[in-house]
């Protein structure tokens, strides 16, 4: 849960220090690892909320009807968890998409994310291209967060 409470700059510097210490130089792999570790708590929270609200008697009923553990998971547990999983996926995607600081710290030469690309465009001044891309990112972010909220509240 530390990425939720620590400033992004601290997480970025710590991730960069870790990668430098172990000599990890994977290009986009470094970005994927850093963003995955940073986004896990954002995906975990809605999934954990769905797990807390689940009725265990449904799984027990499945076992009473001679369903094995795998079939119970696939037919009962997974469909009940799916709104939380999708909600967590969307929140993690938006947090990763909007994350500039960690991307800037961890990215190597030749690896560019959208926020780093926009930052490069801003060096030449604010152009209509930057405004258009920023508006699209804002719209997608609001849409995904709204959908995540609605999916998280589904069936509660």
Task: Summarize the structure in short.
This protein is mainly alpha-helical and 156 residues long. Helices cover 79% and strands 0% of the residues. It is elongated.
Discrete helix count? 8
Query: Which radius of gyration do the C-alpha atoms yield?
Result: 20 Å
Q: How many strands, which pairing sense, and closed or not: the largest β-sheet?
A: none
Number of domain units: 1
> Stretches where pLDDT falls below 50 for ≥5 residues?
none
Strand content: under 5%
Detailed description of the structure:
The structure is a single chain. With 156 residues, the protein is mainly alpha-helical. The chain has one domain. The protein is 79% helix and 0% strand. The protein is built from 8 helices and no strands. Helix 3 packs across helix 5, helix 4 packs antiparallel against helix 5 and helix 5 runs antiparallel to helix 8. The longest helix has 29 residues. It is elongated. The mean pLDDT is 84.
